[in-house]
Design brief:
The structure is a homodimer. Chain A is mainly alpha-helical. Helices cover 73% and strands 0% of the residues of chain A. Chain B binds a DNA duplex through helix 2 and helix 3.
Chain lengths: 196, 196
DNA sequence: TGTTCATGTGAACCATTGTTCAGTTTATAA
DNA sequence: TTATAAACTGAACAATGGTTCACATGAACA
């Protein structure tokens, strides 16, 4: 056995995160174990604990990174859009595209294992995303584009629907869920318009 | 210790299912263990295995029962509704109400533990529910009430949205998600109608 | 009374797994 | 070369938990 130890700490940490991502994704939190992650990261079991307090901390870090990333991308993308309808469409498409790219980790977050870990961080994320939606809706109503409605409740419902799209894509990766179709439904509904 | 054994088998099976429901609901699949279920069902650990092959089989039976029940209720409720818009509303409200009643078990199904158990049964359930939606949409288009659209894709999206409502309610039981508001969005969309 | 069998028991088995810690290795600098 | 500390190792520990099995119980019946 070749000894490959003595690498830079920062690099090892990254390797562990990458490996953990793969292992958690492939097996889920409960069935993934530290030995698998250690092997995948080409480090010893004990080595893992140099960089993460425990299994939970490791998974938590993974989730937090992803959520922060998505939140940042969303804010950024919405920055230069004025049309509320277009903003809603963008909001939806960002989320759908993000899922298709990071399907694996979302599988892990699901409901996996006992309860509440990372629940706080997730709730915070959801709240901030909903706030963005609320801003768009308020703007849309003020501009006369959207119908008058309870802004908070609507944002909650729309974000709920998006969560459903995300979940469906995660569970059935082959299903289409074209962003345009999804936002078309949210924007225009199922009922036929008079002027068409 | 009083010996309470020698009860009818069928009754014991029911007691076990009730107990399992409570325990799985309260702790999730992974953290629930056979000892807890045995105690809650007032039976011995070994006794559990007289009625269910293993932990998975026990949980699977629970889920299957619930899904069959919901599928039956849906079919029944939609039977005597002709108006497509009303049918969509009913479909949504049935699901939302069902979740609020059986929140616990849905928590268990989530994504819990490794992979695929009960996945087949769930997929079958989803397929059949989507079929119901497709029928409603097709009828609505034919009647000129709904806009022309890809029926299958629309059903998938709407069912996806409903899944999101369900998930949101499960995770945040306090949130409202009024059925009327939800179907209003699905039916009419966010954008303001001309005639209003 | 004695036999049968469905029903029930729970200690014990065994595999798994998160975590620790006493010790090893190597880069760096004095 | 030697000392120091950061990086790393993996056997061992301790707890958990699904499952089994040899045995017990009691209702029904001959």
């Amino acid at each position: 056995m070749v000894h490959m130890n003595k690498r830079s700490g920062i690099e090892s940490r990254k390797r562990i995160l990458d490996a953990a991502m793969k292992v958690f994704s492939g097996h889920g939190y409960a069935k993934a174990n530290m030995r698998m992650i250690a092997k995948a990261a080409d480090i010893s079991i004990g080595g893992l604990y140099l960089y993460f307090r425990n299994k939970e901390d490791l998974c938590f870090t993974l989730i937090k990174n992803r959520l922060d990333d998505l939140a940042g991308r969303t804010r950024e993308a919405l920055g230069d859009i004025d049309d509320p309808a277009e903003a809603i469409g963008k909001f939806i498409s960002i989320h759908i595209k993000y899922v298709k790219k990071h399907r694996e980790l979302i599988l892990v977050q699901g409901r996996e294992h006992g309860f509440a870990f990372g629940i706080e961080i997730k709730k915070k994320f959801f709240r901030s995303q909903r706030k963005l939606l609320e801003d768009i809706i308020r703007k849309g109503i003020k501009a006369g584009v959207f119908r008058k409605c309870d802004v908070e409740e609507s944002a909650k419902i729309i974000f709920g629907a998006i969560r459903g799209f995300v979940l469906s894509i995660v569970v059935e990766p082959d299903s289409l869920f074209l962003p345009e179709e999804c936002s078309n439904l949210i924007l225009n509904g199922l009922v036929r318009r008079n002027n068409k």
